[in-house]
Design goal:
The chain has 216 residues and is an alpha+beta fold. The chain folds into two domains: 11-99; 107-214, Jelly Rolls, CATH 2.60.120. It contains six helices and eleven strands. A hairpin with a 2-residue loop joins strand 2 (117-125) and strand 3 (128-135). The chain is globular and about 60 Å long. The relative contact order is 0.17. The structure holds zinc ion (ZN). Residues 5, 8-9, 33, 37, 39-40 line the site of zinc ion.
């Protein structure tokens, strides 16, 4: 059953994803959301169609058209890597295909962050990192703000903060100015896929020390 999604990917990010302009960490989250959300997948397909038409009408490369040829090839390659249109039958177990690919088709190797919170880093680089986070039902994640952009997709359970409630399939995009305390709903562990483009800035001292250890 497809989850009931109420929080979607901003349209500009879907467009950036389709053209291959999105950093890898964020493209993993977008791909996972598209596999769970008919609305955003339709938007991606619309952008893809428009992009395809524009590419087909580009003039043939002439003597100094090497840059355009390369751009065209890169864009077409990006379009080829779009996920299949068919929705996945089971959104959570196993994880969406985009997440399984990051995991090398193996189960997550969880590392404890204390207080029952666990994470598995999927990829980590200068452009951003993407991880799975597991938060026990009823628990809060330490108060933190962001130096950049954080994009969180709920895969299981739900969390809430002052901006609303996020259940399976929902995406939260948090900008630099948001200081928030996400709290998992009572019940099963809340498992999220989270991409960040800069280290999080934790408000309390101890989590800030842990930040170095766990690259959170
Ligand atoms: Zn959506």
């Amino acid at each position: 059953m497809m989850p009931q999604v109420t929080h979607h990917i901003p349209e500009e990010m879907v467009q950036a994803y389709v053209t291959g302009a999105l950093p890898h960490a964020f493209s993993v989250v977008v791909a996972a959301h598209l596999s769970l959300c008919d609305t955003c997948r339709a938007a991606a397909e619309a952008f893809e169609a428009v992009g395809g038409i524009a590419l087909e009408t580009l003039p043939a490369p002439t003597g100094d058209g090497a840059d355009m040829t390369e751009l065209r090839a890169r864009t077409l390659a990006a379009l080829d890597t779009l996920p299949d249109a068919a929705p996945e039958p089971r959104p959570v177990a196993p994880y969406p295909a985009a997440v399984m690919a990051e995991l090398g088709n193996r189960p997550p190797r969880w590392k404890s962050l204390g207080a029952g919170i666990r994470q598995t880093i999927l990829s980590h680089g200068p452009e951003g990192s993407v991880r799975l986070l597991s938060i026990p039902g009823g628990k809060a994640v330490p108060d933190h703000g962001h130096n950049g952009l954080e994009m969180t997709l709920v895969l299981q359970g739900a969390f809430s903060d002052h901006t609303g409630r996020y259940g399976p399939g929902d995406v939260q995009v948090a900008e630099t100015d948001i200081e928030h305390v996400p709290t998992a709903e009572p019940g099963p562990d809340c498992i999220c896929l989270a991409a960040t483009d800069a280290p999080l800035r934790f408000a309390a001292l101890v989590p800030r020390m842990l930040q170095g250890v766990f690259r959170i």
